[in-house]
Design brief:
By secondary structure, this protein is an alpha+beta fold. It has 2 domains: about 10-240, D-amino Acid Aminotransferase, Chain A, domain 1 (2-Layer Sandwich); about 240-320, Nucleic acid-binding proteins (OB fold (Dihydrolipoamide Acetyltransferase, E2P), Beta Barrel). The protein has 8 helices and 19 strands. The protein has helices at about 25-30, 45-50, 115-120, 135-145, 150-155, 170-185, 200-210, 285, and strands spanning about 10, 35-40, 40-45, 70-75, 85-90, 95-100, 105, 125-130, 160-165, 190, 220, 230-240, 240-255, 260-270, 275, 295-300, 300-305, 310, 315. Strands 1, 13, 14, 15, 16 and 19 form a 6-stranded antiparallel beta sheet that branches. Strands 7-6-8-9-10 form a 5-stranded mixed beta sheet, with helices on one face. Strand 13 (about 240-255) and strand 14 (about 260-270) form a beta hairpin.
């Protein structure tokens, strides 16, 4: 089969330019913000400017035997003015919470990390992401899943800390305290870089810059927000979605309620990679699936280490745009 060359397009999850925010409000917020420290083009909170000391942050951990409940980000759709938030990269890693004694997955299950990795952990509870680097989720997942950790594999793993799960203080205050604590702790603990944006246009540029560099997206955290477990209305994730075209080379029959219908499409990418797409097919498309040789458009989150699209979802025939 001849190969076809189709562009891969990145579309923002929302049209930021359509979200009305007041430039006057943004200027007022930034004027009140503490002076940042510039480092490698990224601004970080200044603990001294924030008036925060290590002692000012509570040290309370989860009750004995229980796990900390994480705060979960909502999808950003313009709910708040981005100038009111700190912005950071959304890491493609493994969420982990340190309760002052035990490192746990978001589910509460213990992370099998070696003692050498845990040695630098402070008494303060931490919320962050285990991370190997952009595009390295698969090898990280393999490392973290081992029941018996290997010190040599964990040497490159970093714990990107973005919050401390304690109540009673604003995120801006918590962030300032974390900067002082983690500066003394050293590797593998890293304070996730946080910065401010003036408006939606600057947020859009930041998203495009991070995604172009292989990042997953951005996180916005309302500066005045307290840490509240569960789905948050002050913590947001902003991610692009990716879409591309592929040629249908086969059909796979469905089962169960889709018995007698198409269960998925076998498609071939311009790079010659074959894979199946089942999600996104409505009943009409399952009854009369795109014919072999038809070009279809699909959406996906990112690529696996082997180059296949992750979470591919059918959108439409390419000529239906």
């Amino acid at each position: 089969m001849s190969k076809h060359s189709f562009p891969i397009r990145r579309r923002a999850l929302l049209a930021l330019s359509a979200i009305p925010f007041s430039g006057t409000t943004a200027a007022r917020v930034l004027a009140r913000a503490p002076a940042p420290r510039a480092e490698d083009g990224v601004t970080r909170p200044d603990p001294d400017a924030a008036g925060t000391s290590i002692a000012s942050l509570p040290r309370a951990a989860a009750p004995s035997g229980s796990a900390l409940a994480p705060q979960l980000a909502s999808v950003y759709a313009g709910q708040v003015d981005p100038a009111l938030c700190f912005v950071s990269e959304k890491y493609d890693g493994v969420r982990a919470l340190w309760d002052g004694a035990v490192l746990r997955h978001r589910s509460g299950r213990r992370v099998s990390a070696p003692a050498s990795f845990l040695a630098a952990m402070p008494a303060l509870p931490l919320d962050g992401e285990l991370w190997l680097g952009r595009g390295r989720f698969d090898p990280l997942s393999a490392i973290v899943r081992r029941d018996v950790p290997r010190d040599s594999e964990w040497r490159d793993v970093r714990y990107m800390v973005f919050d401390t799960p304690v109540g009673g203080t604003s995120f801006e205050t918590r962030l300032g305290g974390l900067g002082a604590i983690l500066a003394r702790a050293g590797a593998p603990l890293v304070l996730a870089p946080q910065w401010r944006v003036a408006d939606r246009a600057e947020l859009q540029r930041a998203l495009e810059r991070v995604v172009a560099g292989g990042g997953e997206g951005l996180v916005l955290h309302l500066a005045t927000a307290r840490y509240v477990p569960g789905r948050s209305d002050s913590l947001f994730k902003l991610k692009p979605h990716l879409d591309a075209e592929a040629v249908v080379v086969g059909h796979r029959g469905g089962s169960g309620k889709y018995s007698g219908l198409a269960g998925s499409l076998e498609v071939e990418s311009p790079q010659g990679r074959c894979f199946f797409i089942g999600s996104g097919l409505d009943e009409a498309a399952r009854r009369a699936p795109p014919a072999i040789g038809t070009t279809v458009t699909y959406r996906y989150r990112d690529l696996t280490s082997s180059g296949l699209p992750r979470f591919a979802t059918y959108l439409r025939r390419h000529d239906e745009r």
